[in-house]
Every structure is written in C-alpha cells, then in structure tokens.
Design a protein that fits this description.
Blueprint: E1 8-10, H1 14-19, H2 21-33, E2 42-47, E3 50-54, H3 63-70, H4 87-92, E4 95-97, E5 99-100, H5 111-115, E6 120-121, H6 124-135, E7 143-144, E8 146-148, H7 162-165, H8 187-197, E9 204-205, H9 213-216, H10 220-229, H11 244-250, H12 255-271
Amino acid sequence: MPVWPGETLALPSLEDVTRDPMAFARMTRAFHHETNPFNAKRLTQAHGDRTLVLNPPCLPIGEAEMDAIYDLPYTRRPHPRYAEPIPAHTMIKDSVQIMRGCFGGCTFCSITMHEGRVIQSRSPRSVLAEVKTIAADPAFKGTISDLGGPTANMYQMRCTRPEVEAVCKRLSCIHPTICKLLGTSHAPTIELMRGARAVPGVKRVHIASGIRMDLANLDDAYVDELATHHVGGHLKVAPEHQSDRVLALMKKPSHREFETFAGQVPRRERAGGQRSNTSFPTSSRAIPALAWRT
C-alpha cells in the first residue's frame, strides 16, 4: 500500500468535539488553516474505533479545463421527471457562472471548503458563448439575471507571486487587510460585463451575486460600470452585521466599507444618467432593508 508522502495532522476526535465547544473551535481553526491546495496537510479524526481521513484539497483547475466543463452541450432545462415548476430553476436559468472559488476565508462560510480558495475563471470566450446560447433561446426575455459565482467581483483575481502562494498560510487574502500581492484588477470583469451587454438579443445584464465591497471600493471604474448598467433594483452585499467587532470575527470588511459602497452606488447611478432606484440603505439604522447574501 503506498505511503502518504506529506504531513498528517490529527484533529480532535469526534467524541471530543461533541462534548467540548473549545475542541470544536480548535478543530475548525485547524481545518481552515489547511485549505491551501499547494501546502495543505492530510487531516485525520478519530471516530470511535475508526479514523476518518481527509485528503488535501484538489489543485485548482485552469482556464482551459473550466471552459471544457462549461462548453459541454447542456440542455439548460430541468430534468423531465419534474412535473411542477421549480422556483430555483426560474431564478438561475438565465444566469451565467464566470468563476468558482473564494479567497475571502470567512469564518462561517463553506465556499472555500467546497470550491477552493484559489479563483478559477472561465475565459471571456466561453462566458460570452453561453450568453449567446441563452439569448438565442426563443423563451429568453432579454435579461441575463447574473454574471457571477461565489462572488460577483473576484473574476481572474489571484496571487501575483505563485512562489508565495505555494507556501502561504493566511486564512484570508483580504482580511484583516487586502494582501499587497493579490491581483485586484476589475478590468477583466468590466470587459466581460460590456461584452455580455453587446450580445444581440440581450437587453439587460444584472449582477445578482454578492459583491465584495472592500475590493469594489478599490476601483471607481468598476462601481461606475456596475451602477450605470447592471443594477436591477437590488444589489447583494455581505456585511451580515453592523458591529465591527463581530465583523472582524467573521473576517468581513468593517462597516465603514459598507457605508462607503452604499454611498457610492446611488451617486454613480445619477452621474451615469440613471434614476437611482437601488434598494440600498445608507445608514446603520436601515441595514435590515438590504438584500443580504447568505
């Protein structure tokens, strides 16, 4: 039987984490520290007289592989066994996923665990080909409901130093501060949004995935493009709280970032000649009215 060549880390046992909240916290923290596919350890956990073995995350797939997956001839229809309308299908049938993964590392979120911390993006060709397929459907009403993924604005963002990425153990690339080695350009996202709007038959392209505000606040051009052309009445952002202490524990940007972003969008809508109708609070008291991303 082949021998595992890497390091192995034993987590607190199932019995320990079941009875001791602190053991559960230690287990979770250790688990979060082993999400980098380039240096993660193998994890084990005792379950009674058995041992659960969790191998390190898979390596991220490249653009060509992403395109090969999404270029397959999907029917874009629900399985025929369903006789009744499916609300979830109605919501996503005219949406396009442009990337997968998230480097946010939020303490309550599972995206990093099941999609990876490295952003894996489709090519513009592949994305726009899907938009054209949707637009050619006789049932299409003219609105692409979303260009996004786990977040709306991490497309093609990645560490600019692969040799550092290979050994990095940060839990988040953007908390408590945005890493200086992270590529944060929204230019590829902007070009993709413009390309989707230009597809014949497409009247509107909404952005419905959650927007990472601290990244968006770095790029006025992105916020201009978003506010002028891609707001469908609601924007989804993810403060999830208004206490900076709680937000820090969640590895979320401070409430100031939310106030900055919430103040920009209506102003830029008006500057772009749009009537500002975005459902977006501009003060702490109004936060419950926001369309939260969960």
